[in-house]
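<goal> How does this chain fold?
<body> The protein record starts here
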Amino acid sequence: MTTPISYSNKVAVITGSASGIGRGIAERCAKEGMKVILADIEKKPLLDLEILLRNKGCEVISVVTDVCKEDDIKKLADMTFNKFGRVHFLFNNAGVGVGGAAWETSIEQWNWIIDVNLKGIIYGIKYFIPRMLNQDEECFVVNTASLAGLTTGAGLAPYIVTKHAVVSLTETLFHDLAIKKSKIKTAVFCPVIVNTRIMESLRNAPESIKQEIGKGHRTDEQLQMEAHMRQVLARGMTIEQSSNCLFKELEMGKFYILTHPACKSMVETRFKDILNDHVPSIPSIPE
């Protein structure tokens, strides 16, 4: 059942908002009349989007943010609450793609994708949710995962591992907030094929990883996988279509949000208590 959500003058924070899915979310938030906080590591496209949204009448600020750095997320939260006093929508969206088999991926690349895709969301939860709890009003926390967080396949071990972790983290967050009878609602966004620059994630990688990749530390299989993924993504839905799916499903009260109906059966095998909005009991621990 669709539940109307009040957007006007609400405050939304979006990480990874300078491009891709995050930009689509930011543009939709602005369209709905929200106050928007843009956060991204890429300064120029971030500032360009801030100017674009402001010219459309949106109250917006941008904060250059590296989600790998805990202090950057803390500063983002501090700046947001100092400016607006509250947050109603937190979109932990920033993410990167690293491919390869588990044993072929360097430890440095593993650390980087874990820092961005998983720890960036952990930091967002840590520094925003306590303050959102104190607001005692309806709020939303949406963590961006991927269809890769609900399935597995070859050639994308680092990406798949982190996205599965995001799904599990969000499921756990759902239970923890439900036990507290919080007014914060949660959702995990699992887009399927969206036309973004995810295959160009290395543009924001640490210089040491760029140098490593530049020395040819990629197998023929990785190169073939990348070429295939670029072709698939080029045929994907637009970021506007992606954000439309997200907001539609949010208003329907969905926890697992996918962009393609044909893939929705995948969530039926996951926790049925979440699908049925059931709060699990806490087992007693023997003394």
Summary: Residues 280-287 have pLDDT under 50 and may be disordered. The beta strands are 11-15, 35-40, 60-64, 89-92, 139-144, 184-190, 256-258. Residues 34 and 236 are 27 Å apart (CA to CA).
